[in-house]
Write a structure and sequence with these properties.
alpha+beta; Outer membrane efflux proteins (OEP); four-stranded antiparallel β-sheet; 10 helices; 62% helix
């Protein structure tokens, strides 16, 4: 700060240094359409929604509806040991070890379960539709965020230009005061006032560059860029081109294409399907089951035989006796739940109430969106009028600044009055830029809420 207050400093070098710092880094150009394209490819929320859609589409399969039979293959190996003594039998003693294996194949097929198969399939299709709607909604929101962030960065850049022009004026005033002081027509006080204005404008320019850098970083973040410090040159300008929207047409588009409303309708359909699923539990269930097994067993051991009289007992080794058995069965089952403590009825009533809630959610959102649309349209029209007024205000401020500069150099007004005119010019320029940004944001909201932002 002390060097800036020293007399005779080169303010041209300071201004050049401030201007050069903003363009010293290599930049890449970026149009709005490119920003949107990159955002749609890289935005994490879109990628998450797209992955959830793939999950829902993969689940949309009859395999998850119990339509097909289930086939089970099993194998049951076993070992048994038996030590038997029976004096009343010819075989008075028997010690055997048995080894068996029984492969089994079984089939279960639910032929009828009250229509749950088709209802479940329809529910899976509806869930996939909901995931599609959620993805489209996320795309719309991302496009809106990118547009708003892009033009906000444009406005921040334009405000840098405004600050630079005013800074150049302040620099000229310092040089003018220095010349006056050299010829004995001005004093130190006037030069200090000019320097004070220059330092104030320099500080405001530095802050504005920070605002612009943050705005660009926010744009890159919304786009899903990993390099948040990337230097970009924004190509598209913020232009004033108001459209004449028809309220009735916008409302019709809102009711037919608004993604929030469409998703609420899907939720209503899901609630209705849930009620139908519960109602199927009040119908009989019919199924078929079949199984077949092949049992193979081998027994080894010893047996002791006694035939009575004077004949001694005789022990004999079992030579590995094998037995085989092929078993098959087929059956049909039918069941009906007569009483479950009113569980099904209570759940059905609750589901019907949820249907009503879903319908009310849709109607409430429809009413709110219609009101918001009309308010946004009114705001858009008023903002267009404000821009027309602000353009006249800027023209007036520019003319006033020219006259004030002439009068200041002619000595008819002091530095304080001239500074007030400068500040009024800055405020008018910034007011116009902010008004243009507000108009663009409002127009983007109109397009989003009526489903026209993504075409």
């Amino acid at each position: 700060m002390r060097t800036i207050n020293q007399p005779g400093m080169n303010y041209n070098l300071l201004l050049i240094g401030i201007l050069w710092s903003s363009c010293a880094t290599a930049q890449t150009t970026l149009t709005l359409s490119e920003a949107i394209q990159r955002g749609l490819e890289n935005n994490y929320q879109i990628r998450i929604a797209a992955n959830e859609l793939e999950v829902a589409q993969n689940n949309n399969d009859y395999a998850l509806t119990q339509k097909y039979p289930t086939i089970t293959v099993g194998l049951s190996p076993g070992v048994t040991y038996r030590d038997q003594s029976n004096p009343a039998s010819v075989v008075v003693q028997s010690r055997t070890t048995g080894y068996n294996i029984a492969p089994v194949v079984s089939l279960d097929w639910l032929l009828f379960n009250g229509g749950r198969v088709e209802i479940n399939k329809k529910r899976l299709e509806t869930l996939a539709d909901l995931s599609t709607g959620q993805l489209q909604l996320q795309v719309e929101n991302t496009v809106q965020d990118i547009i708003n962030a892009y033009y906000n960065a444009v406005v921040q850049r334009e405000q840098i230009d405004v600050r630079q022009r005013v800074l150049a004026l302040s620099r000229d005033q310092i040089e003018y005061q220095q010349v006056r002081r050299e010829f004995g027509q001005g004093g130190t006080f006037d030069e200090l006032q000019a320097r004070d204005a220059y330092l104030t404008d320099s500080s405001a320019l530095v802050v504005q560059r920070v605002n612009y850098r943050n705005a660009v970083r926010n744009l890159l973040q919304v786009m899903g860029s990993d390099n948040l410090n990337q230097e970009v040159e924004l190509v598209d300008d913020l232009e004033y081109d108001p459209a004449d929207y028809d309220a009735v047409q916008l409302e019709n588009q809102l009711l037919t294409t608004n993604r929030n409303l469409q998703n609420l309708l899907v939720n209503r359909d899901l609630a209705a399907l849930q009620t139908r699923l519960i109602e199927t539990e009040m119908r009989p269930r019919i199924g078929i089951s079949a199984s077949t097994s092949y049992d193979i067993g081998v027994s080894v051991g010893t047996q002791t035989f006694e035939f009575g009289g004077d004949q001694p007992g005789r022990e004999q080794e079992l030579p590995g006796i094998a037995n085989r058995a092929l078993i098959g069965n087929v059956g049909v089952t039918a069941s009906y739940l007569l009483f479950d403590g009113r569980n099904r009825r209570v759940r059905a009533q609750s589901s019907q109430l949820q249907e009503i809630t879903a319908q009310l959610d849709y109607q409430a959102a429809r009413q709110e969106l219609r009101a918001a649309l009309l308010n946004t349209l009114t705001l858009y029209e008023s903002q267009a009028e404000i821009i027309d007024i602000t353009e006249d205000l800027i023209a007036n401020a520019e003319r006033n600044l020219q006259i004030a500069e002439e009068r200041f150099r002619g000595g008819t007004i002091n530095s304080f009055d001239y500074r007030l005119v400068q500040v009024a010019y800055i405020n008018a320029e910034n007011q116009l830029l902010n008004a243009l940004l507000d108009l663009k944001n409002t127009e983007t909201e109109l397009l989003r809420v009526t489903g026209q932002i993504v075409r």
